[in-house]
Amino acid sequence: MEVMFLNNTVLSWLTALGIAVGVALALHLVKNVVVHRLGIIAARTDTKLDDIAVAALLATRTSVILIMGLYAGSTVLALPLSVKLFATRFAIVSGLIQAAIWGNTALRAWLAEYYGNTNTDPARATSAAAVGFIARMVLWIVILLMILDNLGVNITTLVASLGIGGIAVALAVQNILGDLFASLSIVLDKPFVIGDFVIVDKFLGTIEYVGLKTTRIRSLSGEQLVFSNADLLRSRLQNMTRMNRRRVVFGVSVTYDTPTSKLRAIPPLLTELVKARETVSFDRAHFSGIGPSSYNFEVVYWVETPDYLRFMDIQQEIYLQMLDRFAEMDIELAFPAQTLHVRDARDLAAQARDGIVPVERGPVPLPPAAS
Q1: Residue 207 φ/ψ region, left for φ over 0, alpha for ψ in the -120 to 50 degree band, beta for the rest
Q2: Would you state the pLDDT for residue 149?
Q3: N or C: which end of the chain has fewer CB within 10 A?
Q4: Of all residues in the chain, what percent carry a pLDDT higher than 70?
């Protein structure tokens, strides 16, 4: 037992080994007991915090437990200062990495719970990826800085250098960063979520995916439209899914030969047709103007649902009944038409010679046709 090995007796080495094994077993036992007790509590409560704690503790690495045991055992040995410093730093780095694993696992469990119900709340699916990515990135950056500080790196100088380099990188990838911050704006402000039907300029479709750089829309014709997030936020966007009710304006034109008595009857007729429909709020019906070839009427009403198919069914029925009633009243719908009056220039010249009409300055009349 008094035999020396690396400046320590065999008894010291056996003691260190016993401490290492004992500490490792104790840590493993504590982990299992805590996980078991928290599991029992989690089964009896509705809160998800204990479930998240269980998930985090289950992510404890056996290698980290062994490293902590070996470090505890090394404290009773007479080791060179450099070896002790290395062992201490190695144990701290292992502990920090394990803390990062706990935090990452807990964060994933919380995000899975909070953003899990995407069927009833599509907005959660929209923001899950962005929030999770940013939170994990911040966590690992903090842990990395703590590890570097523990290893003796001057992180103040490093952070300052990263700041200067970050400015240069930001200038080089400003478009990408613009899309990233636009993604955060979409996540926080929620102008739309997955499943919303939107119109962007002349494009329309359903939001299918919101990423860190792009948003993808499935168009009505089936193809996928890809927009950068920054461009999408700068565009004029109409979110049709958030429409509470639909305002409808349509016009009707009748011919010039329609008598006044029938013109007066058209607004009440249109009013009656609109009010007869269900889930409709009538606004107005008026003789709105006189066009180049028609008398024009305008009708405004509200459909008390955003359902487009319901709107089309109502409008179709109004049109069909209007055509039937117009047929009964002998009212004709107008169509674009022009009447062109043509006169022979020789007749105009003859009338001018006879003093019937004055000759207007203009093209010279054609000479009489040869007999």
Answers
A1: beta
A2: 83
A3: C
A4: 84
DSSP letters of 58-109? HT--HHHHHHHHHHHHHTTS---HHHHHHHHHHHHHHHHHHHHHHHHHHHHH
Q: What CATH number does domain 246-328 carry, 3.50.50.60, 3.30.70.100, 3.40.250.10, 3.30.780.10?
A: 3.30.70.100
> In the block, which residue shows the tokens 């201490």?
88
185 or 1, which is more confident?
185
Token output for 286: 């008026």
The mean pLDDT of 318-344, rounded to a whole number, is 87
Query: Which has the closest alpha carbon to 303: 321, 293, 317, 286?
Result: 317
pLDDT: is 280 or 13 the higher one?
280
Both structure tokens of 180: 């990233």
Phi/psi at 282 (5° precision): -75, 140
Residue with tokens 């989690």: 42
Pick among 3.90.110.10, 2.160.10.10, 2.30.30.60, 3.90.199.10: CATH of 176-242: 2.30.30.60
Q: Which of 265, 270, 263 is nearest to 284 (CA)?
A: 270
Confidence of residue 359 (pLDDT cuts 50, 70, 90): very low
DSSP assignment of 137-169 equals HHHHHHHHHHHHHHTT--HHHHHHHHHHHHHHH
Model confidence over 7-17: pLDDT tens digits?
778 888 888 88
